Structure formats: structure tokens, C-alpha cells
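C-alpha cells for chain A. Residues wanted.
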């Protein structure tokens, strides 16, 4: 637009010189080193944070694994007890069935003797 004054770009300083040209070399170097150090610190902090999170996740997962192992062992023990009880029940059932068969045979003999004596 006519009559408007154009603004200098923000990186220009006095007399058209770049701002970075006005900063002494030692200061510029120190700033660059500080930025590099900051980048390294940030990188190291990020790495340490990731390691910490990984360690915490590992601990949580290990805790869950331990809990599942404990539950699994308890379930296996319960299953073993149930199987043992089932075997004992089968043995008792066999003994009971055998005793019942013997009683039935004895009753049949008694009935046969009773029928023979009453006729």
C-alpha cells in the first residue's frame, strides 16, 4: 500500500545487521552450548522417564503374573482334592453296591427258605 512504511524483519538489528551478529562470539558460543546441554538433559530425562515407566510396568506385570500363578496353584490343589474325593466316593459307592448285592442275595435266600417252609 502506498504511503505505508515497511517494517524491518525481526532478525535485523541496527543498520540492517542481524541480531546474532551483534552478540559477542563468547556469548553466542555459551548459548549454543547451553542449548546443547539442555537438549542432552531433555534427552536423558526422557530416557530416564521411559526407563522408570518401563520398570514400573514390569513390576505391575510381574505382580499380575505372581497373582495368576498363585491362583493357578490354588486351583490345581483344589482340583487334586476334588479328584481324590471323587476316587474315595467311587470306592465307597463300589463297597456300598457290593454290600447291597450281598444283602439282596441274602434276602432272596431268606425268601426262598420262607416260601419253601410255608408251602
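Reply:
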Amino acid at each position: 500500500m502506498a504511503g505505508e512504511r515497511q517494517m524491518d524483519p525481526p532478525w535485523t538489528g541496527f543498520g540492517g545487521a542481524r541480531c546474532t551478529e551483534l552478540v559477542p562470539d563468547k556469548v553466542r558460543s555459551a548459548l549454543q552450548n547451553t542449548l546443547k546441554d539442555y537438549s542432552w538433559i531433555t534427552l536423558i530425562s526422557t530416557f530416564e522417564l521411559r526407563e522408570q515407566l518401563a520398570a514400573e510396568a514390569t513390576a505391575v506385570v510381574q505382580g499380575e503374573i505372581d497373582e495368576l500363578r498363585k491362583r493357578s496353584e490354588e486351583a490345581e490343589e483344589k482340583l487334586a482334592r476334588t479328584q481324590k474325593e471323587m476316587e474315595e466316593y467311587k470306592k465307597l459307592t463300589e463297597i456300598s453296591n457290593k454290600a447291597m448285592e450281598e444283602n439282596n442275595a441274602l434276602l432272596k435266600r431268606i425268601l426262598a427258605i420262607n416260601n419253601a417252609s410255608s408251602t
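Residues 9-14 have pLDDT under 50 and may be disordered. The chain has one domain: 14-118.
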